[in-house]
User: What shape does this take?
Amino acid sequence: MTERQKDRPWLMRTYAGHSTAEASNELYRRNLAKGQTGLSVAFDLPTQTGYDPDHILARGEVGRVGVPVSHLGDMRRLFQDIPLDQMNTSMTINATAMWLLALYEVVAEEQGADISKLSGTTQNDIVKEYLSRGTHVFPPGPSLRLTTDMITYTVAHIPKWNPINICSYHLQEAGATPVQEIAYAMSTAIAVLDAVRDSGQVPPEKFGDVVARISFFVNAGVRFVEEMCKMRAFGRIWDKITRERYGIENEKQRRFRYGVQVNSLGLTEAQPENNVQRIVLEMLAVTLSKDARARAVQLPAWNEALGLPRPWDQQWSLRIQQVLAHESDLLEYEDIFAGSHVIEAKVDALVTDCLAEIERIQEMGGAMAAVESGYLKSQLVTAHAERRARIEAGEEKIVGVNCFEGTEPNPLTADLDTAIMTVDPANEARVVRALHDWRDNRDEARAQDALSVLKKTAAGDGNLFAATVECARAGVTTGEWAWALRDVFGEFRAPTGVSSAPLAVAAEEGSPLAAVREKVAKTAAELGSGKLRLLVGKPGLDGHSNGAEQIAVRARDAGFEVIYQGIRLTPEQIVSAAVAEDVHCVGLSILSGSHAELVPDVLARLRRTGVDASPGPHGPGDAPMPVIVGGIIPSADAAALREAGVAAVFTPKDFGITEIIGRIVDEIRKANQLDPLEVPA
Assistant: This one.
């Protein structure tokens, strides 16, 4: 081999944050000391959705899936002793991205940093929130305005910052095929760039600077050859769009810049040790090919399907990256796939199909119109349903789940309750107390004046960033900033995509779904009801709706009448809907860890309405309505939920959706004292 300089490794990050700013700061400094080269901040759901920790919807969610940042004091503490002008920080934040970047900028100023030197990324992709992740707040128009204002501000004042990280990651999690993943991400990029161009805030000669700061955040699945081809196709299409649609001549400005979190959807609760080799293969998809290599990589941990990873689990994932970058010879070569006819043929096919789908979306009026019409969401729900059907039929093999299920005892999970990290239940009360202290001690007049200016700016057409920075300096809280904008912009409930999803699993005679349909019909007849009615509820702020949507679609196909109102509901709203619709069963879906707080609340409220939600048979005077729960629920918590009155708990290891629907029918029969049906589910 000709001697050449070894390539510089990609940025190595760990997606991290929990409990409090203090605890997360300690974790960040520990990770940096282990050789991590960038920070990736996980915010909790109240921060992501614009609620303060004392809001009713924040209950059970504070500090669970990330760090709570309610005001400037929290942001100061989060980055204490971490010089921001020397750090590359990625912040996974979308609806409230402008607010969090304003807090970050003010903290950097307080540290004495030159803000023009700050480098990092804010995710800030609201389209994928509508489609797959569910942390949106405002309607599409105002959301696009916030994004546009932030891009134009950063290009002028924080030129090394990536103000948007268009995120196809969650699209794959929601079932997207590689073609859908590329096409929907590119359609989002077109919507954003068109909005910036049409805003008139950036002179035409500076538009190349805008394009150069657009970055992408992608998913890499275990089909690593296809995934590597996907990244090459992404780069080609981006080069074509930026050159032909926007006239960008500078090749550097047209470069496709992307970071990666490899696939968490494919991580299994069954035989979780298999997740390690899945993570390695997925990382190879975005590192092997020099011409399509990621700028930054963060890996999930082997136990993420079980609960919150511990620092040791995250260290293991960091070490996987370090072994590849520093022990292997990967970085010593030019692109090892250049000239491969197999790779070229696959990339060409992907490019052709993606351009056709992008054109279809443009004909609908672009990404925002395709969100509002429900087209994009229904396509994803359908693709996910088809994938689930292939897994259940054994066509798509998942080791340890639907094949090679026999296993030796696993020392990693011998004590399941210590194999994951838990957040102290008392943490939320401490965070709420600290929030109240902050409000009590700030300059209230300055805070209210800042909010008044923000609302006035929002009602006009000025750039919102300067008003947001003043809110940050004035001690305004996350919830106050978001509510001021809600007052002007309103809130948005995205289409669920459930009602328009076609049948994904055939119900031919003798099939498992046909058997469950028979159970559903017989049970409805015995209860004197036209149809069995199932309420699928998403309490709290957890926006991961994929599981709830798949249960809703399969229950519908099995003959249930399904009531599914989407994400972000209070226990009170769920119970009101259950009683008003007189449902036969309530199904709750929670992945954020707030089940311990929210599920007992639903049970208690049902009982107060005269409904008997306890499992097992009920007397003739009762109104039985069994409650089932699904999500990432540790075994000890599952036992506690059953003890509290939940009829059944389903976790990712229960991958057979048709079987789950059959078990729901069994619980309805049991609650109504009907004899068991000898119909296989």
In short: The chain has a mean pLDDT of 91.
